[in-house]
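anyone seen this seq b4? input:
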Amino acid sequence: MRKLSLAKRSIAVGATSLAVLAMTGTAHAAPAQARAAAPSCVKVKVDKGIISQTAYVTNKCSSTKRVKVRWSFAPDSGCNTLKPGQKFKTKRGLAAQFDGLPLC
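predicted toks r here
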């Protein structure tokens, strides 16, 4: 049996890990992109602070909407049911970037 050097084993493990992550990321990313965006009557405003940022969402529609805030580099918010005039907010660290407001 041939022994691999520590460096070669590390490279092999890293390459395998990247392949697994790439396949996993692709499987999870497709459904999120397929969701319809919230209508324009659902408003979102993102305020960036010193160490965090907050997304404020307001339903200005005439009907109830179910939406969530999608973030890049951070977990998305949960699904929120908003009656006309209702609001919610969600806070993330500065590394996160607002990435959309899909229906859920």
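The chain has two domains: 1-34, 35-104. Residues 13-30 have pLDDT under 50 and may be disordered. kinda curious what u guys think
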